[in-house]
Amino acid sequence: MQDYTRHYVGGRWAAGSGRGFTSIDPYTGEPWAQHTEASSADVDTAVAAAAAAADEWGRTPGVERGRLLDALAIAVQDNVEQLAKIETRDSGKVFRENRAQIAFAARNYRFHAGSADKLTGEYKPLDTEDMVDFTSREPVGVTALITACNSPLSQLANKLAPALAAGNVAVVKPSEHASASTLEFARLVEEIGFPPGVFNVVVGAGETGTALTSDPRIGLISFTGGVGTAKRVAANAAANLVPCVFELGGKSANIIFEDADVDRALVGAVAGIFAAGGQTCIAGSRLLVQRSIYRDVVDRLAERAGQIRLGDPNDPDTDMGPITHRGQYDSVLRRIDEAVQDGARLVTGGRQADSGPALFVPPTVFADVTAQMRLAQSEVFGPVLAIMPFEDEVEAIQIANGTNFGLASGIWTRDITRAHRVAKRLQAGTVWINTYRASAAQAPFGGVKQSGYGRERGTDALLEYTRTKNTMIDLSDSTRDPFRLAT
């Protein structure tokens, strides 16, 4: 049993004062790591340590912040194999996917290492020549960064890299279902030599999260997770008028038009829903297919889904691992049962008779799903695909926009004018054309509607972690009537 019972606070490792709990390997079903939950008092200590470091770190020259972030990028890349093994043990996601995502995390740190000394304001021309006005960007102070269980280090990089680059300090709370890799990451931060208090980690569930999101010393909360939890976080933040960045769930529409390269689209459809076992917010869980090619696509997708290999997530021959934890596993099975009850046609997959200790849900495909069915409206967060037919562009857009979510969408067509036309009308933060799940450190990421607000990655993320200060200078040598400044 691995010992992860200490939190990283103020540059030191300290035992938490809350309850102990274990992390279960979702493949073997065995406990593998021991944790201690951070109590409200522990969170208070962590926020105090961050607050004490905030002013000095905010005044640290951007070039120095960038140097440390660049060192962090190198450290993450150098330790990618070990970090990926830990995340695989914690989450059940296949090793090669974790390795690729953590390597991408290193890219995010490197991107923001280069942006740390490039935060600039603007000169504002006024109505009179003897007044000067300009803006500057300043850090918000202490940030609370909360990640989910499916990709902890990748999500952390989306938040921490711009936060530190902008001059903020951070208190991080990973999911209680996958905390080990974040604590290992803290060792890298410690080795590099970030000032004490700039980066802090507390582990826990409800009490820990409530204490952190309710603390009035927090300047911004960035949360990745479910809509229900986000609403509670928003309520806690509202009590102190703290701004939030939310990256939440999705019910993303992947749209295949009849003129698409179907072979290419099928690859995108399979990757869109079955990568990471469907446990990703951007999963293309609704596949909209033009009716003229609908039957062919359903048949071919069913065949491809049946070829996906389930097994040990550390085995390079494994395509898909287990569901991350028992609660999510049970939730996915309930969603499958609901789809059957609502009249969706089960094409392949469904409940597995006996998966042993591993929390396996086989790749599952439902066809003839209608927009009113629960499977078309509710996020499953598992390897379950809903295929829906459409007649034309108008209907495709109507179906695609017909949920409370708006995180991502995909369009498959050879017609570039159609691609632009449809993309413009889709209510989604990201639209992919003839690809799916592509990412770039430079490209902003986030949703609309109940998929959240605010943006991660790129310069958009950097601006989320700053506030604008306006400075106005009177250049005249005479007394000015404050009520007649515009004259």
Helix content: 25-40%
Class by helix and strand content?
alpha/beta
| Overall mean pLDDT | 95
Helix run count: 15
Low-pLDDT stretches are none
Q: Could you state the oligomeric state of the chains shown? A: single chain
Radius of gyration: 24 Å
- What order do the strands of the largest sheet run in, or round the barrel if closed? 15-16-17-14-13-18-19
> What is the first-to-last residue Cα distance?
74 Å
Percent of residues in beta strands? 15-25%
Total beta strands: 21
**Broad shape:** globular
Summarize the main sheet.
7 strands, mixed
Topology:
Blueprint lengths: L1 E3 L1 E4 L2 E4 L4 E5 L6 E6 L3 H20 L2 H17 L1 H12 L3 H21 L7 E2 L6 E9 L2 E5 L5 H14 L3 E5 L6 H13 L6 E3 L4 H8 L4 E7 L2 H13 L4 E4 L5 E4 L5 H13 L11 E5 L3 H13 L19 H16 L3 E4 L15 E4 L6 H4 L6 E7 L2 H8 L7 E5 L3 H10 L4 E4 L18 E2 L4 H7 L1 E9 L13
Parallel strand pairs: 1-5, 8-9, 8-11, 9-10, 11-12, 13-14, 13-18, 14-17, 16-17, 18-19
Antiparallel strand pairs: 2-3, 4-5, 6-7, 7-21, 12-20, 15-16
Helix pairs in contact: 1-7, 2-4, 2-6, 3-4, 3-6, 4-5, 5-15, 9-10
